[in-house]
Design goal:
Length: 175
Amino acid sequence: MLAGALYRPGDAEIQADQAANKAWLARYNGMLDRSMADRHALLVEHFGAVGESAVIRPPFFCDFGYNIALGAGVFLNFNCVILDVVAVTIGDGTQIGPGVQIYAADHPRDGETRRAGLEFGRPVNIGKNVWIGGAAVILPGVTVGDDAVIGAGSIVTRDVPAGATVMGNPARASR
């Protein structure tokens, strides 16, 4: 799974990791009234990497947690979802609006392979100082360059160059 190869989501090891993540999510999402320092400590405990002053406002949802790397000063507003079956990296200073969804989980295009219950993932890389507006969706395998802006409600289906502003469905460069 971590290498992006086909895997079965019902595998016992994967199910155990997801159960542990669900328990962590229950703890984290119950901490809305706690200090940012308390929540940051819980992120550090569970994620692959967490930079100084990174903030995620609960509620938050993810598949595993340990595949997520947050840079320093990253901010995710309420109700974000990260499907992290493979690496999801978010660079320093990136700001993510409420309800944003980042999908590294993917499904085979071939119907027979899907019927066999196989899935795979493609890493998502979001650069430094990116702004992602509320309710945007970032699809598997996308790279967003440094200083890019993604408009609210956009569906990002392909890479976004550094410094670009994209919006719409599918997201396209603004003029």
